[in-house]
Amino acid sequence: MPTLELPTSLYSTDGSRAIDRLALAQDDLPEGALMERAGAAALAVLRQQFPAARRLLVCCGGGNNGGDGYVVARLAAEAGLAPVLLPVVPETALRGEAALMAAQTERVPRITLADLPAALNNTDLVVDALLGTGLASRVRADMATVIGSLNAGHRPVLSLDIPSGLNADTGAVMGLAVRASATITFICVKQGLLTGEGRDHCGQLWFDDLDVLPGDYTAVPVSCHRPSPALLSDWLPRRQRGGHKGRYGHVLVIGGDHGYGGAVIMAAQAAGRSGAGLVSVATRPEHCAPLLTRQPEMMVRGVEDTADLAPLLARASVVVIGPGLGQEKWGRTLLRAALDSALPLVVDADALNLLCDAVDFTPRANWVLTPHPGEAARLLDTDTASVQRDRFAALAALQAETGGTVLLKGVGTLIGSDGQGPALISYGNPGMGTGGMGDVLSGMIGGLLAQGLPPAAAATCGALAHALAGDRVAVAQGERGMLATDLLSHLPRILNP
């Protein structure tokens, strides 16, 4: 049955096709069986999420995606609904199972492209079965015309497998894509549905494995994994009764140039709330009093140069550098000192910008870099649009260039590390698009590193807990008006599973 609970394994287009082939070859399925199951699953979602919809406009392309649409139209008619078909690809051009399914819908009325505007005015719900997961180039003109009309028609849309026009591997829009109210994806979840522009175009995402056998999945490599909250207990076992502050690490947060004291305060608070035993802060002297007023548990030192910083580095076990660091001489000098240490690092914000422009670096295994798409573009000497067109490729390029672990922020945050497939964080909400969220995240990762988590695990655990905290705030007070510091009080509950 269709479910909103998504699997933790995500697949590329090639992986999805390989599972399809194995299912058809190994499971002794009759012709059209998977297509029939897909159509039935889609109709179940339609009836559940859109119970008042009776007049349906089913827009069908060619290939298997169009075939799924024809099954939905037939089953909807049999269920007493009133479907109308728009075959955008001539039915005479259909082949294989798609042709077979289209032939079984002779009693369902058809319209042409010329009828589309009027049909939309007389429709409760659109079923999008235009383009499937194989789209790798810009949507052609006839399909773009239909997609544009659907988006402008202000009718709810249920997309089958993927919103037409969305790249299943990258989450990029291939010129124009359907903005669905809901999407049901079949057999496996395609990685592009959960990152880039995928989330905005999918609407409510449903999943149905179409009863494919577990063995059909094991032979196909997973392209990306989606950590679930259940993993937090694996990363963060219950503490021993004899634990003490020295056992849980000492985080040094470096940042807060003139006028940017808030960022370093939030990062330090997040490190403490994430479980670090000790938290020190190296910042401009004028920020010491406000920080201690806000969080007296922190040890704060005003620093002007590397001579002031050296004793703090000597006592730390982890460094978080970047929040409010600025890009002037003070920030460059402190970053150079941090890079020259052998300590594990979390590099964020202005420290990333300095790596791009002013401070040489050597790739290292024991750091976590946390760029947003703009910072990633500068590190790769490209533009933000290029990063967003293929976030998985950008992540791989960043990780190859910098070593260690890279966390690429954005909708569907991605984490990459040597020898591990990427992780995708599917939690979080638009309310988190506000100043200071990145500072809280970098402090959290530092606090988790200090407790002994390896860099990849600390980054993944931190990003997951950060997103879950944002979701809890949204439930409690809504998305609009959320502040980064609203997350802090939720962290201990999330990180003590």
TrEMBL record:
Q: Which residues bind AMP?
A: K409, G410, V411, G412, T413, G438
The family database entries (SUPFAM superfamilies) matched by this protein are listed as: Ribokinase-like (SSF53613), YjeF N-terminal domain-like (SSF64153)
YjeF C-terminal domain: residues covered? 228-497
Residue positions binding K(+): N65, D128, S164
Question: Which Enzyme Commission numbers does its entry carry?
Answer: 4.2.1.136, 5.1.99.6
- Give the UniProt keywords, A-Z: ATP-binding, Isomerase, Kinase, Lyase, Metal-binding, Multifunctional enzyme, NAD, NADP, Nucleotide-binding, Potassium, Transferase
Q: Which domain of life is it from?
A: Bacteria
GO BP, one annotated term: metabolite repair
- The entry's (6S)-NADPHX-binding residues are N64, N65, G66, G67, D68, D161, A263, G324, H372, D439
Reactions mediated catalytically: (6S)-NADHX + ADP = AMP + phosphate + NADH + H(+); (6S)-NADPHX + ADP = AMP + phosphate + NADPH + H(+); (6R)-NADHX = (6S)-NADHX; (6R)-NADPHX = (6S)-NADPHX
Q: What is the cofactor note?
A: Binds 1 potassium ion per subunit.
- What Pfam families does the database record attribute to this sequence? Carb_kinase (PF01256), YjeF_N (PF03853)
Which CDD domains does this entry report, sorted A to Z? Answer: YXKO-related
Ranges where the YjeF N-terminal domain occurs: 16-218
Does the keyword Electron transport feature in the UniProt annotation? Answer: no
Gene Ontology MF term list: ADP-dependent NAD(P)H-hydrate dehydratase activity; ATP binding; kinase activity; metal ion binding; NAD(P)HX epimerase activity
Q: Which cofactor does it need?
A: K(+); Mg(2+)
Q: What does this protein do?
A: Catalyzes the epimerization of the S- and R-forms of NAD(P)HX, a damaged form of NAD(P)H that is a result of enzymatic or heat-dependent hydration. This is a prerequisite for the S-specific NAD(P)H-hydrate dehydratase to allow the repair of both epimers of NAD(P)HX.
Q: Which family does it belong to?
A: Belongs to the NnrD/CARKD family.
Subunit structure, as described in the record: Homotetramer.
Q: What is this protein called?
A: Bifunctional NAD(P)H-hydrate repair enzyme
| Gene giving rise to this polypeptide | nnrE
